[in-house]
Amino acid sequence: HTDYQPVNLIPPPLYGAATLAAMWLLQKHYPLICSSAEWPVVVGWIIVLMGAVIDLVSILSFRKVRTTVNPLRPENTSSLITDGLYSMTRNPMYLGMAIMLTGAALIMRCLSPLFMPLVFCLVVTVMQIFPEEKTLQGLFGDEYRHYKRSVGRWI
């Protein structure tokens, strides 16, 4: 038995872009329960903006303490951020991306792309978050263990 540990090789924004492309393909080729109403577009853009703000605030938190924001190099993390958005979710940047994808699904006005943000969350959890957690555990030990117990992975 070997413990498979994925390696961070793909930047999470590429997972987001691939998810968005899959959503567009689903909407175009497999439209399911579509609407011509304008409200999904308006609500969708508001949700996209909310996700973008969450991402921006998260990035600024990293810049403030001068630690790496590079998701491919979590071993270069010099500080564990536990305040602000990071006191509510351990992964606000990924949550912001998932929120933006949910808004994009609404903008597309069809039900078919709406499940793809969940696929994004699953893929990012396995391919990105699990390896990051292992690295942060090694870097910050008990401090990170306590943080994991007090703050949820997503929400």
Structural overview:
The longest helix has 35 residues, at 116-150. The relative contact order is 0.20. Helix 1 (12-29) packs antiparallel against helix 4 (116-150) and helix 2 runs antiparallel to helix 3 (92-107). The chain is elongated. The mean pLDDT is 93. By secondary structure, the protein is an all-alpha fold. It has 4 helices and no strands.
Proportion in β-strands: under 5%
* Structural category: mainly alpha
**How would you sum up the global shape?**
elongated
Mean pLDDT: 93
Element pattern in H and E? HHHH
Number of strands: 0
Unreliable runs, pLDDT <50, ≥5 residues? none
Bin the helical content: 55-70%
Give the count of helical stretches: 4
> Could you give the distance between the termini?
32 Å
> Over the alpha carbons, how many angstroms does the gyration radius reach?
17 Å
**Major sheet attributes:** none
Summarize the structure.
The protein is an all-alpha fold. It has four helices and no strands.
Helices, strands, pairings?
Layout: H1 12-29, H2 39-64, H3 92-107, H4 116-150
Helix pairs in contact: 1-3, 1-4, 2-3, 3-4
